[in-house]
Amino acid sequence: MTVRQVAEYLNLNERTVLKLVTDESLPGVKIGNQWRFRRTMLDAWLDDQMLGVVPRPPEVNFNMRAPRRMLALESCFQLAHIIESLESTTKLGVVEELATLANRLGLVRDKNWFVGALIERENIMPSAVGNGVAFLHTLYRHPEQVVRPFMVLGRARAGVDFDALDGRPTYLFFALGLKFHELQLPWLAKLAQMFGRPETVEQLLGAPNGEAIFESLRRAERTLFPASRD
User: Are residues 165 and 88 in the same domain?
Assistant: First the structure.
């Protein structure tokens, strides 16, 4: 839904809708310079208002500026963290595969916890931001469950219906295990900038194997963030 459609649906003026979403009071995602909304999220938001609950769902903004110095992706992401070809064709199946890999690599202490935490966030707002990409992460940090900050990546060549805001299939799934709160927005900002460029998505989809996927990601990061060497 657009700002105008939301304004009509909620019987508000567009300026009020923009203020609410900018203040993170209303659930929405900014793609480029346009806000997009899901009716199911708005209905949940209305229910929460009636109950006196005011959630603040995480937002990925493709115009966010990543800090000049932060952890390089390679410090928390390795070749072994890639599922070159996901077998699953459903949202839950994809989450299960990613969580299984993270658990097998010793990155999380409890696979079932990670699956549940990722799905909890999906139920509030889908992580598929459009452009064929999803950035999965938990709503809250649980340092006792995450062994160290990490990112795992799964690729689905045929695409999966992941409730993307643009209504299209999702092909690349990044699951973040962020041990500390201060890593969340910088990492999301960095990834959003990298994958706001269609050529980055195309390169990863066309990569013949995991090694090529890994090198494409490193190259995309170096191009946008040449000083990221932490």
Answer: yes
CATH code where residue 168 lies: 3.40.930.10
**Amino acid, single-letter form, for residue 180:** F
Is residue 46, in this structure, part of any structural domain at all?
Answer: yes
- Please report the pLDDT score of residue 48 as a whole number: 52
Quick one: DSSP state of residue 162?
A: -
Tell me the per-residue pLDDT of 7-49, one tens digit each, with 9 for 90 and over.
988 888 888 888 888 877 788 888 878 898 887 777 666 655 5
CA dist., res. 161 & res. 118, Å (int)? 16
Calculate Rg over the CA atoms of the chain.
17
Same domain? For 118 and 152 the reply is yes
Spatial neighbors of 87 by CB under 8 A, at least 6 apart, are: 93, 97
Record the tokens describing residue 225, joined without a space. Answer: 């963030």
Q: Report the C-alpha gap between 199 and 114 in whole angstroms.
A: 31
Residue range(s) defining the domain that contains residue 167:
73-224
Specify if 63 maps to a domain: no
Q: Structure pTM?
A: 0.70
